[in-house]
């Protein structure tokens, strides 16, 4: 088990959960659903699967302190701040380098920081199977989510034949990664039964991902090799990253590698999963009253239905005669948004002054 | 001029402007519209018309401190706390007693604490005429408001023939006081041109109101006489009120006297007037953007129209995709209310715990 590592990607800007989330306290640092910050839940979910020393978090300079605070069980040197964001392929490469220094024979899982998974046993079982699949044949493995609706907000993974089976879970060859589809296409994916949602959960060996990066993104790989060489010469990590990381090619791991590689396999998540992508999603995780209102905190509803109230501590939100709103109170800002227009929050935040983001 | 007194009625419960207003800081203690609390504006509006010593405020125990704070120019002994609310006739009687002790020949105006009147010159001119009308023939005088719409939220005053004229303002005999009408009736009142809104502004001599109370509410008058007798014997006002005031008959001055007396006259307000009765009214007093949104404080509006934002200091309210809402932020509570349902605020407040009212 000591050859297994987990890298948690914790670099979101926190725009979609404004005003609760801010640049310095994005969604993964907040208990959006549950008693602990989403990132803490993600770390806790690995308890018993890997040792704390084998868990890395990749974040950014603004959030580094916050991440350290919500991950008290992790060694501080395992919490890495990218000097600038260079998309997921560079982050994967960075994680791969750090783990390679510890053990070139290791495998690693990449997980998002802020997905909600309650069945941690089912999660660990699937993750174990994914590691086994990666270890046995140097494959690139992704854990897919069986779609429950024709969602247009996720990429899809088209599965092919089963290539092996571990602990009663089938491993399928990936036929193709698909970009976020339109509704009609999503509907056809759903009906075919051949597609998973791409949840950004990957497992691969250091060797396999290193080779794949070299094959499909040679420019990025050259940059990573330079960082590796100078780390091997004893240079300190953070000043080195400050110098070289900003020059790395900026590309997503999906586009750079997963969509191109041949040896990609997938398995179905045998656990609940919700990426809680925006405010309307929290509705699924709080009890609702008889009019479909939900409250995270104190709220009263009069002649109102289908509302979501997020009031924080010691604050009451009173609704009268309104339907289908998201209302979020924070100390210095309040959001009042029609539920079906939550995608506009991000744009609104871009227009705000620096003291409100 | 020293025979003229003004009594300001400042006893509202502050329910309609919740959550900004509370039991201890009702509307008249807040700058709902304007830079100063409504009561302070009411006192300031009398500047040059009567001396501070001739202005009384009748409030309640909960609000007494707050009233003292926003009326720094008034002698503290002129700020009187009713031990319990006994409706307006008892308050009128109490004011009448206190002024009678200073000068039995005096006249007094009763004014609400929280109406918005910007034209203080026009106001003082009309008030002067009302005093003259009260002084010349021991009449009960009320200043009416010329209706601009068929409002169903006010009582109406049916005017008859002109009985005299002062400073180019006609004094009309009152034919009848009318209760709050339905819309159809209100429409007919508006069209006839014979009706004013009853704004609760009265002027009368101590002698005239004393006689009227004796004639139409003898039970109340007996109670007031007892208070007067014991005050004359040198008893202190506040302990005396604590003992006797709760026993006084509870009835409105409109119902007790104004609707029954014969010698009632009225004149039209020669000034702007807005009772700012509930949140939707503040819309008239703030500039609106091109989509009809108004903000008292910081707000941003995206795909939203006709909203009212009251955000207080250093707090931003962001609206996305919502129309015709009132959103009011305070430290411990937020209101989100459809504009046309603001009348429900009062009922909602009744259902709240003691720490929120």
Describe the structure.
2 copies of one chain form a homodimer. Chain A has 357 residues and is of the alpha/beta class. Chain A has 2 domains: 4-268, Spore Coat Polysaccharide Biosynthesis Protein SpsA, Chain A (Alpha-Beta Complex); 279-356, no CATH class. In chain A, 29% of the residues lie in helices and 27% in strands. Chain A has helices at residues 38-44, 64-70, 87-102, 120-137, 183-192, 206-216, 218-232, 237-244, 253-258, 345-350, and strands at residues 4-9, 55-60, 79-82, 107-112, 140-145, 156-166, 169-178, 195-205, 264-268, 294-302, 308-320, 325-329, 333-338. The mean pLDDT of chain A is 95. Chain A binds chain B through residues 18-19, 300, 302-303, 311, 314-322, 325, 327, 329, 331-338, 340-342, 344-345, 347-348, 351-352, 356, and chain B through 18-19, 300, 302-303, 311, 314-322, 325, 327, 329, 331-338, 340-342, 344-345, 347-348, 351-352, 356. Strand 11 (308-320) of chain A pairs parallel with strand 13 of chain B.
Could you give a quick summary of the protein structure above?
The structure is a homodimer of 357-residue chains. Chain A contains ten helices and 13 strands. The first copy, chain A, is α/β, with parallel strands linked by helices and 357 residues long.
Distance between the termini of chain A: 41 Å
Biggest sheet details of chain A: 5 strands, mixed, barrel
The proportion of residues in beta strands of chain A is 25-35%
Tell me the number of helical segments of chain A per DSSP (H or I, 4 or more residues long): 10
- Following the backbone from N to C, one meets helices and strands of chain A in this order, namely EHEHEHEHEEEHEHHHHEEEEEH
Q: Which class of secondary structure composition applies to the elements of chain A?
A: alpha/beta
Overall pLDDT metric of chain A: 95
| Rg estimate of chain A, integer Å | 21 Å
Instruction: Kindly state the percentage of residues in helix of chain A.
Output: 25-40%
Number of domains of chain A: 2
How would the global form of chain A be characterised?
A: globular
CATH architecture of the largest domain in chain A: Alpha-Beta Complex
**Reading side by side through the largest sheet of chain A, how are the strands ordered?**
5-8-6-7-9
Q: Which consecutive residue ranges of chain A, at least 5 long each, have pLDDT under 50?
A: none
- The quaternary state of the protein chains shown equals homodimer
User: The CATH topology of the largest domain in chain A, please?
Assistant: Spore Coat Polysaccharide Biosynthesis Protein SpsA, Chain A
Instruction: Please write the CATH class name of the largest domain in chain A.
Output: Alpha Beta
Largest interface: A-B, 36 and 36 residues
Please give the number of β-strands of chain A.
13
Give me the CATH superfamily of the largest domain in chain A.
Spore Coat Polysaccharide Biosynthesis Protein SpsA, Chain A
């Amino acid at each position: 088990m000591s050859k297994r590592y987990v890298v948690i990607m914790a670099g979101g800007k926190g725009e979609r959960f404004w005003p609760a989330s801010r640049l310095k306290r994005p969604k993964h640092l907040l208990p959006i659903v549950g008693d602990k910050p989403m990132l803490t839940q993600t770390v806790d979910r690995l308890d018993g699967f890997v040792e704390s020393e084998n868990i890395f978090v990749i974040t950014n300079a603004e959030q580094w302190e916050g991440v350290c605070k919500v991950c008290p069980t992790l060694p501080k040197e395992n919490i890495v701040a990218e000097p600038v964001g260079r998309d997921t392929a560079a982050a994967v490469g960075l994680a791969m380098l750090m783990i390679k220094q510890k053990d070139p024979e290791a495998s690693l899982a990449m997980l998002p920081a802020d997905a909600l998974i309650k069945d941690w046993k089912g999660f660990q079982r699937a993750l174990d199977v994914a590691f086994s699949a990666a270890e046995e044949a140097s494959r690139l493995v992704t854990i897919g989510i069986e779609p429950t609706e024709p969602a247009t907000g996720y990429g899809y993974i088209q599965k092919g034949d089963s290539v092996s089976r571990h602990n009663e879970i089938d491993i399928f060859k990936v036929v193709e990664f698909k970009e976020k589809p339109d509704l009609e296409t999503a509907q056809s994916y759903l009906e075919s039964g051949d597609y998973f949602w791409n949840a950004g959960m990957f497992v691969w060996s250091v060797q396999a991902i290193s080779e794949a990066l070299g094959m499909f993104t040679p420019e990025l790989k050259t940059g990573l090799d330079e960082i590796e060489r100078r780390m091997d010469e004893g240079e300190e990590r953070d000043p080195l990253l400050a110098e070289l990381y900003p020059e790395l090619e900026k590309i997503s791991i999906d586009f750079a590698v997963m969509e191109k590689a041949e040896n990609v396999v997938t398995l179905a998540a045998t656990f609940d999963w919700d990426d809680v992508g925006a405010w309307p999603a929290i509705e699924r995780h709080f009890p609702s009253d008889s009019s479909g209102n939900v409250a995270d905190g104190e709220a009263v509803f009069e002649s109102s239905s289908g509302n979501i109230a997020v009031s924080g501590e010691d604050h009451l939100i009173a609704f009268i005669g309104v339907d289908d709103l998201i209302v979020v109170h924070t100390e210095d800002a309040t959001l009042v948004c029609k539920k079906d227009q939550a995608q506009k929050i991000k744009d609104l935040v871009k227009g705000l002054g620096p003291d409100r983001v």
